[in-house]
Write a structure and sequence with these properties.
alpha/beta, Rossmann fold, seven-stranded mixed sheet, 11 helices, 7 strands
Length: 265
């Protein structure tokens, strides 16, 4: 099982949050109050992060990771939930939904990192080749400035740098290797779309690494849509959390309204 934090308000529905690389349950501080008004919340810490910081890993095993999420849901008797992810967490959620679709209701992906542009692909390939040959600190500094280069990204960049330094070196390398999945994701994304789960992508307009990929994904998909936040970078749930929350909660509300007539019929 993964370690986690729970906010159980005795509501009917659950929302599961999955953070990005270097993040933790604390990543969602701007979401907790508003989401907990109508939902129970499960905030997961990925291996090597937050409450799981002592779980040092040499290699990320997707199947083991997905089973860990499933076991956590089973332990808490959560049969189905809405999933909200950020950055790396969007990849984890997409893969989990393919493996265990029965646990997934709707999906909201902030800063969706499922498809890279050519420059970002080159950066991931380069990072994997040089990891272990350059100082560990260089890699997280590089990713911070590469993903969040503008002045208005400063808050997100500082938070990322503050948290990612807590990662064990081997864990950081393992997650960088895991990111190679996004180099050729089209077959997997097609499987996700075929499942019929309603997927909302929320991207910052200034997310130069991933927003073009999100547009390309949605263009081909039947069950996915994209909302873009102006003057916002990669970590949209922090940089413009009010708009992020509104878009996400509206998506969940609309999904519930669509389901209620079906239940009556």
């Amino acid at each position: 099982m993964l370690k986690y934090e729970v906010i159980d308000n005795q509501k009917e529905e659950w929302v599961v949050f999955v953070h990005g690389i270097g993040g933790s349950t604390k990543t969602w501080g701007k979401q907790i109050d508003e989401f907990s008004e109508n939902y129970n919340l499960l905030l997961l810490d990925l291996p090597g992060h937050g409450l799981n910081a002592d779980n040092i890993i040499q290699k990320v095993s997707p199947l083991k990771l997905h089973k860990g999420i499933k076991e956590t849901l089973d332990y808490l008797h959560i049969e189905k939930a809405h999933f909200v992810g950020l950055s790396l967490g969007t990849i984890v959620i997409a893969q989990f939904a393919i493996c265990f679709p029965q646990y997934v209701d709707t999906i909201i992906l902030g800063g969706p990192s499922l498809k890279l542009n050519s420059v970002s692909k080159a950066a991931v390939i380069c990072a994997n080749k040089i990891k272990g040959t350059v100082p560990y600190e260089f890699l997280y500094q590089f990713f911070a400035w590469f993903m969040m280069p503008k002045k208005n990204h400063e808050t997100s960049r500082k938070i990322f740098l503050r948290e990612v330094v807590k990662l064990d070196k081997e864990t950081m390398y393992a997650w960088i290797e895991y990111l190679q999945w996004v180099l050729d994701p089209d077959k997997f994304l097609k499987k996700l779309d075929v499942l019929g789960k309603k997927v909302l992508f929320i991207s910052g307009k200034e997310d130069h690494c991933f927003v073009s990929g999100a547009k390309a994904i949605v263009k081909k998909a039947k069950n996915m849509e994209l909302k873009i936040i102006d003057k916002c970078g990669h970590i949209c749930s922090i940089e413009n959390w009010k708009t992020f929350n509104q878009l996400a909660l509206d998506h969940l509300k609309l999904h519930k309204e669509r389901k209620e007539p079906e239940a009556v019929n």
